Structure formats: C-alpha cells, structure tokens
Amino acid sequence: MSHHERRAESVLTLEDFTPQLVVKFQQKLTSRAAQARCIDGTFFEQEIEHIARVMMPSLIGDPGGPILPAEYWRGRLHELLEGTHLTRAQLCALDSLLLQLDDLEGRGRPTPAGSTCPCRTGKA
C-alpha cells in the first residue's frame, strides 16, 4: 500500500466516530467557547494568529487530503466569534479567515488571504 493510499484511509470525519464521542467533542467545543468568552483579548489574539498560521497548511494537507477538514476550522472560528469584547481588528481577522474557508470550499483549493473588512483594506 502506497503512502497516498494509507493517508487517504487515515483521514477521519465526524461520521467515523461513535455518536457518544461526537457528543463529547461537541461538549468540549462548547466548553472551549465558554472559556474563551471569559479570557482577555490576548487569548483571542493568540488563537487567531495560531489559526491564521496553521489553517491553510492543514487544509492543503498532502496528496491524501486535508489533515483537518474545513468544518473543524469553521467551528474554531465561530467559537471565537462568540467571545465578548472582540476588537474591530480581531473581527476583521476572523472575517478574513472565514472568507478563506469560503473560497477554498467554493473553488476546491486555497486562495491568497484577503478580506473585504474595512480595517484590512484601508477603507475605514
């Protein structure tokens, strides 16, 4: 079996797990969102920067496919959007990352980072 075939077999989706494990995963996401709402802006900055660095490489993956699927990253971004006291720059960064996901899903491949958010385009 080639590396490509082994990698293709190792890509997992939520359907590959038992319903109980999916519920635990969803509870963990909900718990992380609640924690995120209680933490200062530094946490949000670090999370946004981390996602911006690793999201596209993990979506590109290797010939076997993505390391983590788009729905995982969309969930992480929506968790952050639930946070209170997000700055305009943080909202624009999240908007840009969501647009990248939309582009990827619409075109089937990643596109350069970009946002229509006024604080990113200088139109504010």
Structure description:
- This protein has 124 residues and is an all-alpha fold.
- It has one domain.
- Helix content is 68%, strand content 0%.
- The chain has six helices and no strands.
- Helix 3 runs antiparallel to helix 4, helix 3 runs parallel beside helix 5 and helix 4 runs antiparallel to helix 5.
- The chain is globular and about 35 Å long.
- The relative contact order is 0.12.
- The C terminus is likely disordered.
- Give the helix level as a range of percent: 55-70%
Please trace the helix and strand order, writing H or E for each element: HHHHHH
Distance between the termini: 54 Å
Number of strands: 0
Total domains, how many? 1
Radius of gyration: 16 Å
Separate helix tally: 6
Share in β-strands = under 5%
Largest sheet: none
Shape: globular
Low-confidence stretches: 118-124
Overall pLDDT confidence: 74
Structural class: mainly alpha
